[in-house]
Amino acid sequence: MKEFLHHFFLPRHTNNYRAGILHHKILLSFILFFFSAGFLMSYLRTNFPSVLGTFTDISIQQLLLLTNEKRQENGLPSLTINDNLSQAALSKASDMLGKDYWAHNSPDGTPPWVFIRGAGYNYIYAGENLARGFNNAPDVINAWMASEAHRKNMLSSNYQNVGFAVSTGKLSGEDTVLVVEFLGSTTYAPPAVAKEPEKPATVAVVPGSPATVAKIDTETLGAQKADSSKPKVIVANSLPQVKPLVNSQTLSLVSIRLIMFMFILAFILDMMIVERKKVIRFVGHNLDHLFLFSLVLLIIIILARGVII
Amino acid sequence: MHKKLKTHKGYYLSLLTILVLGLLLTFLATPDFILQVIIILVTIFFYVFWGILHHLLNHELTPRIMIEYMLIGLLGISILFFAHMGGLI
Fold first, then answer.
1. pLDDT mean over B71-84
2. Distance between terminal CA atoms of chain A?
């Protein structure tokens, strides 16, 4: 084993003074492995999503709680879920997925306010935050809070109500999770001072199609009491409710980290030992390859993050 | 190492510029995935081209070195492909 590792990672006489992992045949094997494993993962994700799939844990309940947490931290009153705003948010998400766009205004110029009015919410103030590609609610809220414009929206004292939609679908041919947040108020009056919620929120989500609904007890969601004593209705998201046996994102991340670590280690050791032993050989510059691997890693880090507008 | 960096300062700086520019454009192209793929492929192509050209002008360019740059470029692409198929990016 020790001999094998030496041969694989260190330049020595047994590997013609080039770490075994950097030999052409081994490089080719890794290339073939990544391409074939990629196709296999895609096949399994499509045909056996309960075995290998992506699990996105974004609940409307969590989005609301975190939003209100941030507002309370900033001395602002909590927002209450409004079913009209939630309906408007779902219409906006469906419109984006149906017309394949990612913007505040649709390609035909329809602004977000049309969806809000269309859902029967006669706003005086209204705002919209959008997010896509996130895996959990805290990341969505943190990304919004990190952006000045989105933060301003979330922490505006003009708003009293909020509506969320979380929808899965394809944008530009890519599977994605969209989060739409509509904020609004129907009165000019400044909202009451924030109070701590009395007990944690509970949301019953009905699994199934994107149009399914869930009942929600508004009294438990924030500091403010709901206008009506009737239970509010929010639109449930269409995220898969079954957690896959293996999360494909975790699997690919772990594999990539492991293999790239092996290569980076081999490049550095190969470079150092050859320099020290003053071996003359005709190969490419390891430093070039290290630069490229850094680029690949940074691209993965950048693209793996969600996007907000 | 230091000597190598000093001797080929222009090469390493230009290579880093190409890669950083590629990364920046990839970031700016968000959320247009197709455009991002094109930018990444062009950046990796330039990396291979630049490495081969550098060896041709400053060292002895052998078929093995050419193949090495192509394989490393392909390995980078295959890793990104794998990440994409796994839903990571």
1. 96
2. 52
Q: Test B87 with A54 for CB contact under 8 angstroms.
A: yes
What are the tens digits of pLDDT across the range A44-72? 988 888 888 877 788 899 999 999 999 99
How far apart are alpha carbons A219 and A198 in whole angstroms? 9
Query: B86 vs A31: CB contact, 8 Å cut-off?
Result: no
B44 at interface of A, judged by CB pairs closer than 8 A? yes
Q: Which residue of A has its CA nearest to B14?
A: A288
Looking at beta carbons, which residues of chain B come within 8 Å of A275?
1
Proportion of chain A above pLDDT 90, given as a percent: 53
User: Nearest CB to A249: which of B16, B78, B86?
Assistant: B86
Of A14-23, A26-35, A109-118, B1-10, give the lowest mean pLDDT range. Answer: B1-10
In the predicted model, is pLDDT for residue A238 greater than 70? no
Separation in Å, CA A277 to CA A12, A84, A284, B60: 10, 73, 17, 21
User: How far is it, in rounded angstroms, from Cα A158 to Cα A163?
Assistant: 15
Find the mean pLDDT for residues A244-255: 89
> How large is the average pLDDT for residues A82-104?
93
Cα of B13 to nearest chain A Cα, Å: 11
AA identity, residue B26 = T
**To probe the interface with B, which of A52, A293, A303 has the most B CB atoms within 10 Å?**
A303
Within 8 A by CB and 6+ apart from A175, the residues are A54, A168, A169, B87
Burial of A279 from C-beta contacts in 10 A (0-12 / 13-18 / 19+):
middle
Instruction: Verify whether the Cβ–Cβ distance B88 to A291 is below 8 Å.
Output: no
Chain B contact probe: residue of A299, A300, A302, A305 with most B CBs at under 10 A: A299
pTM score = 0.73
Q: What share of chain B is helix, strand, coil (3-state, %, to 5)?
A: 85, 0, 15
Q: How far apart are CA A240 and CA A166, in angstroms?
A: 11
